[in-house]
Amino acid sequence: MVLEDAEHLCAFARFCDPHGQIWNLVEKTDQPAAASLVKHEAGHCPGGRLVAKDRATGKAIEPHFEPSIGLVQDTAKEVSGPLWVRGAIPIVAVDWRCLRDA
């Protein structure tokens, strides 16, 4: 498994840190437990920064989400935001450009 990292998309929600940082875990994805954690942490990255990919095919490994919009809660810093848009919800800019297809 490889990890694609678009650092500029980071929402600073720290979903990638709870089990020893995803960047350390991706080096151990030959172990089933580490591979499972990498898939989960990358798949739940609210900013879309991290994408786990199959090393052989290059195909993204992404979870299925029911359409929903949530608010990321940072309990450590006692702040809320950003919005987390999941599932097949199109995102359209004010000028009607589609930023994400459903």
Q: What would your notes on this structure say?
A:
- With 102 residues, the protein is an alpha+beta fold.
- It folds into 2 domains: 2-53, no CATH class; 68-100, no CATH class.
- It is built from 2 helices and 6 strands.
- The protein has helices at residues 22-25, 32-43, and strands spanning 2-5, 50-53, 68-74, 79-86, 91-92, 98-100.
- A two-stranded antiparallel ribbon has the order 1-2. Strands 3-4 form a two-stranded antiparallel ribbon. A two-stranded antiparallel ribbon has the order 5-6.
- Strand 3 (68-74) and strand 4 form a beta hairpin.
- The longest helix has 12 residues, at 32-43.
- The mean pLDDT is 88.
Summarize the structure.
The protein is built from 2 helices and 6 strands. The chain is an alpha+beta fold.
